[in-house]
Amino acid sequence: MEYLKLLGILVVIVGFALKIDNILIIVIASIVTAIVGGIGPVALLQTVGSTFVANRSMLIFVVVMLATGTLERNGLKQASAALISKIKGATPGAIVNAYGVLRAFFGAFNVGLGGVAGFVRPVVIPMCEGAITSKGLTPDPEHMESVKGMAAGIENITWFFSQVLVVGGSGALLVQGTLADLGYTSDLVQLAGYEVPVCIAAVVVTLVYYTLLDRHDMKKYCGKEGK
What we know:
Elements: H1 7-17, H2 22-36, H3 41-54, H4 56-73, H5 76-85, H6 92-107, H7 115-133, H8 141-162, H9 170-181, H10 188-222
């Protein structure tokens, strides 16, 4: 009889297989689990409420993913590619670098743009493809793999170095805590001041490297240098 409490999982699997509305599936699965588990309506609502409060940061992530998926289904990729195709001289490397500068700037204020899954894949990558197709060329699979690597790399590098610039942010607190364990007293404002030139140097080196890599890839796969 204990296995009946797992009936809600079966509801989720069947619902996804039949492509039923996701929210409706979750609601039905919750109700079914409550019924077979002997949970009353009040207890169910209390459980849902406490879980929501305890995992609200994860809920934000889920909402972003759902919103991204909905936008993709309604032509987000096509719109991104069409937008960038209007810009003459755009190359995948230039787009990735522009995104990197934007990412570093907002990262310094602890503002996220969605990361690889929420922004790079549905927006930046289609823009890079549009930059190639706007020249009358067909994107080479190997070339696009290189572009994906650059886009993911610029996301990780800019976020890694810029998040420490936020006074009181998780990155700065981690560094301060690590130094404290080693016997060093540090000030968050002072740490941010030290990190500024490090962040700028890291971003500049990455931009230069990706510019050179982009020129190499454009010449190799498209028969021309990106300008």
